[in-house]
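Inputs:
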Amino acid sequence: MKVMAQMSMVMNLDKCIGCHTCSVTCKQAWTNRSGTEYVWFNNVETRPGLGYPRTYQDQDTWQGGWVRTGRGKLKLRAGGRLKKLATIFANPKMPSIQDYYEPWTYEYDMLLSAPQGAHTPVARPRSLLTGKDMNIEWSANWDDNLAGSTATMQDDPILKHMSEHVAEELEQTFMFYLPRICEHCLNPSCVASCPSGAMYKRTEDGIVLVDQEACRGWRMCITGCPYKKVYFNHKTGKAEKCTLCYPRIEVGLPTVCSETCVGRLRYLGLVLYDADRVSEAAAVEDEHDLLAAQRAVFLDPNDPEVIAAARSEGIPEDWIDAAQASPIWRLINDYEVALPLHPEYRTLPMVWYIPPLSPVVDVVASSGNDGEDPRTLFAAISQLRIPLEYLAGLFTAGDTRPVEKVLRRLAAMRSYMRDVNLGNAPNEDAAGAVGMTGTQIEEMYRLLAIAKYQDRY
Amino acid sequence: MASEDALISLGRYLRRGEVSEDLRRLYLEGGRGGDSFYRDRWSHDKVVRSTHGVNCTGSCSWKVYVKDGIITWETQQTDYPSVGPDSPEYEPRGCPRGAAFSWYTYSPTRVRYPYVRGALLEAYRAARRQGNDPVEAWAELTADPVTADAYKRARGKGGLVRASWEEAAEIVAAAHVHTIRKYGPDRVAGFSPIPAMSMVSHGVGARFVQLLGGTMLSFYDWYADLPVASPQVFGDQTDVPESADWWNAAYLIMWGSNVPVTRTPDAHFMTEARYRGQKVVVVSPDYADNTKFADAWLAPQPGTDGALALAMGHVILREYLVDQRTERFERYLKQYSDSPFLVRLEPAPRSSAGSEHAGTYVPGKFLTAADLADDVLPGAADEANPHFKPVLLDSDGRPVVPNGTLGHRYGEADEGRWNLDLGDVDPALSIADAASVEPVEAATVALPRFDVVPGDPAGRPDGPGSPGGTGDLHTGGKGVVVRGVPVRRVGGHLVTTVFDLMLAQYGVARPGLPGEWPDGYDDPAPGTPAWQEEITGVPAAAAARIGREFAQNAVDSGGRSMIIMGAGTNHWFHSDTIYRAFLALTTMTGCQGVNGGGWAHYVGQEKCRPVTGWAQYAGGLDWVRPPRQMIGTAFWYLATDQWRYDGLPADTLASPLAPGTFAGRTTADTLVDSAQRGWMPSYPTFDRNPLDLADEARAAGRKPAEHVVDELKAGRLRFAVEDPDDPANFPRVLTVWRANILGSSGKGNEYFLKHLLGTDSAVFAEESAPDRRPRSMTWREEAPRGKLDLLVTMDFRMTSTTLFSDVVLPAATWYEKHDLSSTDMHPFVHAFNPAIDPPWQTRTDFAAFHAIARKISAMAVHHLGVRHDVVASPLAHDTPDEMAVPHGTLTDADVPFRERHLVPGSNLPKIVEVERDYPAFAARMSALGPLTEGAGMVTKGVSFSPGDEVRRLGEINGLVPDGPAAGRPRLDRDTHVCEAILALSGTTNGRLSVQGFEHLERRTGRPLADLARGEEGRRITFADVQARPTPVITSPEWSGSEHGGRRYSAFVVNVERLKPWHTLTGRQHFYLDHDWLVELGEQLPVYRPPLDLHRLFPDSPALRSGGSRTEQAGTTEAEVVVRYLTPHSKWSIHSEYQDNLFMLSLSRGGPNIWMSPADAARIGVVDNEWVEAVNRNGVVVARAVVSHRMPEGTVYMHHATDRTVDVPIAEASGLRGGIHNSLTRILLKPSHLAGGYAQLSYAFNYLGPTGNQRDEVTVVRRRSQEVRYS
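Outputs:
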């Protein structure tokens, strides 16, 4: 056992309002400068939708992450290191600026400086890359809130892989938001892709960084990252990425995106894991087993054996305390309501998500039974507006069972707490039906609903 | 393998690190030594607390980071005081728009210097060079038609040139002085909304305008955010729960309120409350953002929400108050609503209802003590204010005047009786409940309906199109339903109760009553779930289920059912009726005044918590009273000449059972009537300079009021509203700050450009034909253009308003000044603080107004001196004025104005003479005047005597050493004003709160002061709120209680302490009996569909019938007619932030119109193509966003889409495309103009015609994709 510590995040998508405050505060703090105009370390995408950069989840096209070889080993999907070395001067497989978006500004100064003329002055858009007038045809968040759904939605890589057809009809509409930062993976394919050794994972907290002095701009990391969360600064010629705000983390502050999240849906914390088991976990044969495999890599911070091993690795006492207090362990391993994003990329990502509940489909169109009555809710989970298969395509390599389990637990919590709210005797059966006790439900409720600052971070 | 791994192995040597055995992972010790690049970026010199004075209800506290004297970015503060251990906290309040604010500081749209329109500046300089002093120069250039025309035509076409502050301020000052002297101070106007968002910045300009004698324009009603239903039902402007109280709701309906977008900082309380088992229902025509969180989604046709609410009420009344009497609901209705009060039934008017309704009655006026003799109502003859003491029946059948009515509120006799203590009285909810020696009789009442196809007066449900059905081409026709109520005779009057009338109105049958009743929920007779389904498209069973659940939850949770209601349902012409139907739900289920229950209206409603101190300062009430405060909608309607295009016959809105008061009159005529009666304010008031009126009165030896009456009777003096196109009546100088009226709220934007400003516009409408012109207004053949001589705007960025302004003054941003902020969403007051000094030549609003004031004072010595001013003041709410019109009955409605017995304060505004010491103007601006302690302060009828506070302010701020304000507390710094506002309000000064409560205790005879006594010693200072958001003190200025750390919820004090509402009965009103409400048929909650604009205005395009789906696929048409809605945007707060590069990069980068795939296909438009939306009022150019979340037949252009960013030239006009309000126009609803009576009495931003804009329709076409910008 080699105990290491990983700073990790869980986002509760059931609380995300899609406001993008996280994107803006992150952008302001980190990438509001030339060369990174198009770069959003943190972005929020509407699902269904194409994401940023467009269709990044389609690894048939973008070749990110790992694949398992016939011999049960992992190799980079984009090709082994020899191939990389051989093609090092060729353009790597990476999205073009158009797949992100061409950043622009406006001729704002015309509003003040326009001479007397025939028309009201206006600020026209102008490319930040070419300096020329431009037509805006894509942005960092073009399909926000299903904008242009008829033109783009069916190209969503998740939808394309679903067996069920999702129609663009008002009555069938569903959407939710997926805020994304770097996953700070346990098995980062970007690091493995870097020919310069400039990318590394910090030993003490697992944060994945690009050494700005060592980066030679090969951009293999961009190809390697299946989440497309490494960016190329076209001014400095270096790769840049989310740093998990390490200058803040180091002094005990949450990341900017976490602290400024007005949905209060982000949790930060340390997780202890067994570094010796990472390769094995990432290489399990069945993609559906990746979730369990990764959970098994995590170490119970209250286990005396783990604590002893951690101490012997030189992990400081206060870090062990932090791991014990971490909400991440509880959400992932105790309550099992958080799931990883695209485990099938085999990078063992460390930003996990609680999938969103959603209303049942039929109320708009017909009279409907009360599918959301807590008593009948379990039966209705399969009729939720967001197809289980879609969520499974994001979080469980297509296996709907873990997603359904999470949603049932959230629903059970609502049912249980409604009785408490109304002063009735709480219904232990509701908790038992999802494999929890009433006490556990109430603890989970406090973490998810009351969610005080000190409990989130 | 080995060779493949060489690469990463090599990397090992570049830096000390550890590589995993399989060489896939490289671990490096980070530590403080590594990666200084990002650590350097995350460093700053200081963090300053400030906030955003933008017109949202956020009032979020922010950390502003400064490095090397430059603002770098901002993040939210997280140090709000705790909500308590069992609730989520407020932190971190803020949204992406606020997070993007610092971009403005150094952006290229920042106004850095003063600018003046070139053509004007040249003319002014030329006039000055000829030896004129500034005032003479201004007089000369504005009097010269060629010069004036030249600079007015140049408005909005570029050509702004830099000027010095000195010169720009001189021009502005000269324009004010000249206008006051020549035309009158009420021709000077100021517009700046929402004081709560920055009280000092608002207050300093308002004070400037008021001390000059100018006109401050209202905004809440003008924005259509004021729910007129609130004063109608509650007698209150709006009072709502804070967002943390959503957490306490067990059932939450978000109705036309897209909480994640419009209440971003607070939305988490909604998402989190679901985990407590709260059930969430969303009512929205599109898949709005909040639908994601809903347990149920109802999608009614836009604007039909009232029908849905009535049907839900039908179910609740049927199941919870008729089939069984839910004890809680019954008790609540008896004590806190007008339900048990008696209404007189009058014979149905023969003329309108026809013989068909012979023998039927219509609901008339409340029965009051004045209607009853002593033998019927013992002591009636001795009652004070008997006309304002409505009567109910005790359960033993005796008529009783309960405590707490309006009549108890004023006068010595009833001191201590203005309360809701029923004593031994057990009110009979229904006539049938009261003991009676005779068997209960029944009568049939005729009730209006407005949901039928025009021309089908009977409203037969089996007509060619079902009533009001979505498939009908036209809606809004009138009909009558006849239903029975139990009745009794009391003192010779045939009466029934409001509750009985409610059951009739809602179609809830009881055995033995005559009339037409629905057979059940499936019967589409008015009021039922099936009826609403035909109108709204919401399945009947769903409507019934949600209604039932709402009520059952109220039973189960003790009233914790809440409706968050928003602009989606509030910006309609008939929103007052929609909202009354909502409020009926929360009242009949006993949810109002309960934490976690009741209405939660969040539209433009920002609570200036320290309201009393702000009002003293902003109103200039410390020096001169009363202020001139004007209903904004009426001001703009007249000033922009939209009235010339309107001509809407008022009787098209009237009830089929109307007595006929509106016959032959337009809605504009009702405005004239309302102004003449003093129901609503009217500035400019007369067609004469009010300074001259004062001089004339003096010369004639008459009192000003007598003189005004003499002149009016003689026909020598007229109200300006009668002739708004007379140059004597133009508003001449307008100052706009903290606002963007021309890019945002200006309904009928193109009319502003055409008539108010006199520049190019895209008005396509024709003026009214002679048969539709207002009969009480003078029609001048030539419509004026360019009424305004000077438009001054202070802003930090370029907007449509600055683009069209004559003088643009560079303002400090919110990160560059001191100020105060509060909101209704949280109970805190907190501070703005300068992170940097105002850069370039920018100045705070405070500094700018004071600079202009000093110039005015200097010029005034010669040009104005000390004058007297005749102020006409409307009949005011929360004063005895509200007893001016007994029963709301007009006895002289048919008498021509000049032939009436004109009595100021009765059927004429109050006429008050005040002194204007213009040379002392600047000195008075910057000191607290003597009236504050001398005359006291009054808020909502509660008096405060702040002698101690004024003395203490003198110690804190210092005293003025000399000059006209010598010895008074100084207000010459923004921080002084912050201290004054905090010191003079009960919410921030415990002594005043207790004092106010003690005042109320005397009136009500109920204990109240204990709510604040524990905090009597607290004085919240500016330093306190700079340090941290500071919770306020429970105060009689508001109706809720924060006592003991509870969440603020409106009307808690009324319910728990039996303090009456400020209404006629002292209770919440279902029933309104003012003549004009009777005329409109809106005595009770009633469904009124969206205006059928094509029927009312033939030049408005016709919505197609619902059959469009049957058209052949693949055929495209040139254009489609759609409903045009302007909901609030995710990427802006009004027009603020929509020009912000971050927001533009995260959205579509410019103006958009959202439309359904079906509508887009119909005109052959694909996503992101350019389209034009055109109607009689103007044109907008935008790109289409095609999305299946949109319902067919409706498009959205987000509210306050300005014309500054990426707007091409429109094909339709050949001009720059317009703003979202280029397609709208002002329409007046007479019920908003009713006044002089109980809760229907005027108060600033409390009551007034709304600038509704939801009923508009437009043509949308695909335009050439080759756009040009010049």
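Remarks. Chain B touches chain A through 146 residues (CB under 8 Å). DSSP finds 41 helices and 38 strands in chain B.
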